[in-house]
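Input/output pair, single chain:
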Amino acid sequence: MRAVVQRVDGAAVTVDGETVGEIVGQGLCVLVGATHEDTEETADRLARKLWTLRVLDGEKSCSDVGAPLLIVSQFTLYGDARKGRRPTWNAAAPGGIAEPLVETVCARLRALGAHVETGRFGADMRVSLTNDGPFTILLDV
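Output:
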Protein backbone atom coordinates (compact mmCIF):
# COMPACT_ATOMS: atom_id res chain seq x y z
CA MET A 1 0.00 0.00 0.00
CA ARG A 2 1.07 3.54 -0.62
CA ALA A 3 0.19 6.62 1.42
CA VAL A 4 0.81 10.32 1.03
CA VAL A 5 0.88 11.66 4.59
CA GLN A 6 0.38 15.36 5.21
CA ARG A 7 0.63 16.98 8.62
CA VAL A 8 -2.33 19.33 8.73
CA ASP A 9 -4.03 21.95 10.83
CA GLY A 10 -7.50 20.88 9.72
CA ALA A 11 -8.77 19.01 6.65
CA ALA A 12 -12.11 18.12 5.10
CA VAL A 13 -13.61 16.05 2.29
CA THR A 14 -16.79 17.05 0.49
CA VAL A 15 -18.90 15.08 -1.97
CA ASP A 16 -21.60 16.93 -3.94
CA GLY A 17 -21.28 19.89 -1.56
CA GLU A 18 -21.75 17.74 1.57
CA THR A 19 -18.90 17.41 4.08
CA VAL A 20 -18.42 13.66 4.56
CA GLY A 21 -15.24 13.76 6.67
CA GLU A 22 -13.47 16.49 8.61
CA ILE A 23 -10.74 16.88 11.20
CA VAL A 24 -10.11 20.05 13.16
CA GLY A 25 -6.72 21.08 14.51
CA GLN A 26 -3.47 19.20 14.21
CA GLY A 27 -3.64 15.74 12.65
CA LEU A 28 -2.85 13.81 9.50
CA CYS A 29 -4.53 13.85 6.11
CA VAL A 30 -3.62 10.59 4.43
CA LEU A 31 -4.23 9.66 0.79
CA VAL A 32 -4.17 5.85 0.52
CA GLY A 33 -3.76 3.64 -2.54
CA ALA A 34 -3.68 -0.13 -2.86
CA THR A 35 -2.03 -2.37 -5.41
CA HIS A 36 -2.75 -5.96 -6.44
CA GLU A 37 -0.38 -7.64 -3.98
CA ASP A 38 -1.69 -5.86 -0.88
CA THR A 39 -3.36 -7.87 1.89
CA GLU A 40 -5.05 -7.27 5.24
CA GLU A 41 -1.60 -7.66 6.80
CA THR A 42 -0.33 -4.81 4.62
CA ALA A 43 -3.29 -2.66 5.68
CA ASP A 44 -2.58 -3.47 9.33
CA ARG A 45 1.09 -2.46 8.95
CA LEU A 46 0.07 0.82 7.35
CA ALA A 47 -2.41 1.57 10.14
CA ARG A 48 0.18 0.91 12.85
CA LYS A 49 2.75 3.04 11.01
CA LEU A 50 0.31 5.95 10.64
CA TRP A 51 -0.74 5.80 14.29
CA THR A 52 2.85 5.82 15.59
CA LEU A 53 4.61 7.97 12.97
CA ARG A 54 6.44 10.74 14.85
CA VAL A 55 5.78 13.71 12.57
CA LEU A 56 3.65 16.03 14.72
CA ASP A 57 4.98 18.95 16.75
CA GLY A 58 7.71 17.92 19.18
CA GLU A 59 8.29 14.67 17.29
CA LYS A 60 5.01 13.30 18.62
CA SER A 61 2.74 10.77 16.93
CA CYS A 62 -1.04 10.69 16.65
CA SER A 63 -1.00 8.02 19.36
CA ASP A 64 0.99 10.32 21.68
CA VAL A 65 -1.43 13.25 21.46
CA GLY A 66 -4.69 11.71 20.25
CA ALA A 67 -4.53 13.57 16.95
CA PRO A 68 -7.19 12.66 14.36
CA LEU A 69 -6.62 11.25 10.88
CA LEU A 70 -8.53 11.90 7.68
CA ILE A 71 -8.14 8.87 5.38
CA VAL A 72 -8.97 9.34 1.69
CA SER A 73 -8.74 6.52 -0.84
CA GLN A 74 -6.85 7.48 -3.99
CA PHE A 75 -6.10 4.92 -6.70
CA THR A 76 -4.11 7.52 -8.66
CA LEU A 77 -1.19 7.03 -6.25
CA TYR A 78 -0.34 4.02 -8.41
CA GLY A 79 -0.55 5.93 -11.68
CA ASP A 80 2.42 5.53 -14.01
CA ALA A 81 3.25 8.39 -16.38
CA ARG A 82 6.81 7.39 -17.30
CA LYS A 83 5.81 6.69 -20.91
CA GLY A 84 3.80 9.04 -23.02
CA ARG A 85 1.55 11.76 -21.69
CA ARG A 86 -1.34 9.70 -20.38
CA PRO A 87 -0.93 7.82 -17.08
CA THR A 88 -1.80 4.15 -16.80
CA TRP A 89 -3.47 2.73 -13.71
CA ASN A 90 -2.41 -0.92 -14.16
CA ALA A 91 -0.67 -1.09 -10.78
CA ALA A 92 -3.73 0.15 -8.88
CA ALA A 93 -5.93 -2.53 -7.34
CA PRO A 94 -9.52 -2.59 -8.62
CA GLY A 95 -12.24 -1.25 -6.33
CA GLY A 96 -13.31 -4.69 -5.15
CA ILE A 97 -9.84 -5.24 -3.70
CA ALA A 98 -8.88 -1.69 -2.75
CA GLU A 99 -12.04 -0.65 -0.91
CA PRO A 100 -11.90 -3.39 1.75
CA LEU A 101 -8.18 -2.71 2.26
CA VAL A 102 -8.73 1.01 2.84
CA GLU A 103 -11.60 0.14 5.19
CA THR A 104 -9.25 -2.24 7.03
CA VAL A 105 -6.72 0.57 7.53
CA CYS A 106 -9.49 2.72 9.06
CA ALA A 107 -10.82 -0.12 11.22
CA ARG A 108 -7.34 -1.00 12.54
CA LEU A 109 -6.65 2.67 13.34
CA ARG A 110 -9.94 2.89 15.25
CA ALA A 111 -9.08 -0.31 17.12
CA LEU A 112 -5.81 1.32 18.17
CA GLY A 113 -7.79 4.26 19.59
CA ALA A 114 -7.62 6.73 16.70
CA HIS A 115 -10.32 9.18 15.72
CA VAL A 116 -10.65 8.53 11.98
CA GLU A 117 -12.67 10.46 9.42
CA THR A 118 -12.91 9.31 5.80
CA GLY A 119 -13.84 10.30 2.31
CA ARG A 120 -16.27 8.24 0.25
CA PHE A 121 -14.73 5.44 -1.80
CA GLY A 122 -15.11 5.93 -5.56
CA ALA A 123 -16.79 9.32 -5.24
CA ASP A 124 -15.74 12.56 -6.91
CA MET A 125 -14.28 14.15 -3.78
CA ARG A 126 -12.99 17.61 -2.97
CA VAL A 127 -10.23 17.53 -0.36
CA SER A 128 -9.27 20.75 1.39
CA LEU A 129 -6.56 21.08 3.99
CA THR A 130 -4.08 23.38 5.62
CA ASN A 131 -0.71 21.68 5.29
CA ASP A 132 1.23 22.40 8.49
CA GLY A 133 4.87 23.02 7.68
CA PRO A 134 4.37 22.25 4.86
CA PHE A 135 5.03 18.64 5.74
CA THR A 136 4.35 15.79 3.33
CA ILE A 137 5.91 12.32 3.13
CA LEU A 138 5.36 9.23 1.02
CA LEU A 139 5.01 5.83 2.71
CA ASP A 140 5.20 2.48 0.97
CA VAL A 141 4.47 -0.56 3.14
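The chain has one domain: 2-140. Residues 54 and 138 are 14 Å apart (CA to CA).
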